[in-house]
Amino acid sequence: MPNDPNHREQAAAGLEQLAALVRAQAWRSDGLPALPPTQAAVLRMLAASNEGLRAGQIAARLDVSAASLSDTLKAMQAKGWLLRSVDADDRRASLLHLSKQGRTLAARLNHPERGMAALLQGLDAADVGALLRVTQLLVGQAQQQGMATGLRTCQGCRYFQPFASSDARQPHICGFLDQAFGDAELRADCAEQAPADEALLAANRERFRRRPPP
Ligand code: SF4
Q: Which of 55, 161, 206, 213 could form a disulfide with 173 if both were Cys (CB 3.0 to 4.6 A apart)?
């Protein structure tokens, strides 16, 4: 219905439904344990990191307290999923990595037929691009409202130049790769991301949320 005043409530209800659905169903088939979401997020994060991560970096990206992450890490370590090594940059600190068992579990979690990834299988590239764009906008809102820090999205990246390309199919530029790209290539978690400062973040947020001129 056009101009439905409840459209934001409907969108919020849809997102809540999806999140609950995936939480309830995602990890229960194929012998996988029913993982708490934080443990699943730590597994994914460490699987994407070659060098390993400090506990403080993980807590910042997940926006959880060091104390609550500590309980999560203890539980994961007790299951044999984590290893620690000395951080060469600061020998008093340690880096967390996945053990072989942890890597196997992360690979199963990231399987394209599982969880959220399974729901995206039927979408075409334009719809995935639209979803990635909205994801960037929602993460930006979450960061503005203090609900998240440390997420490595394009919108929060110092290399991101929204609508800076003359190619309408690839309207954005990644300064790190020196490449134009479209919404379908927006990154929700990019290893090369470097956080933009406040002024650049505000300018990029404003530019990105506006529709490009026809
Ligand atoms: S470095 Fe990564 S996060 Fe930054 S603009 Fe390029 S692709 Fe996006």
A: 161
What is each CA distance from 201 to 1, 24, 186, 191, 193, in whole angstroms? 34, 35, 16, 18, 13
Between CA 70 and CA 87 the distance in angstroms is 18
Atom number of ligand 1 nearest to Cα 161 = 5
Residues 98, 129 within the same domain: no
In ligand 1, which atom is closest to the CA atom of 172?
5
Digit-coded pLDDT (tens) for 129-155 = 999 999 999 998 888 888 777 788 999
Torsion over CA of 101, 102, 108 and 114, rounded to 10 degrees? 150
Nearest to 174 by CA among 154, 188, 189, 194: 154
Asked if residue 51 belongs to a domain, the reply is yes
From the CB of 190, is ligand 1 less than 6 Å away? Answer: yes
Q: What domain range includes position 30?
A: 11-115
d(CA 53, CA 150): 13
Let me know whether 102 and 128 are in one domain.
Answer: no
Ligand 1 touching residue 139 (CB < 6 A): no
For residue range 11-56, list pLDDT tens digits in order.
999 998 888 877 776 555 455 666 788 898 899 899 988 889 999 9
Q: Is residue 5 part of a domain?
A: no
Question: Where does a domain end: 59, 83, 115?
Answer: 115
Last residue of a domain, one of 99, 115, 131: 115
- 162 and 106 housed in the same domain: no
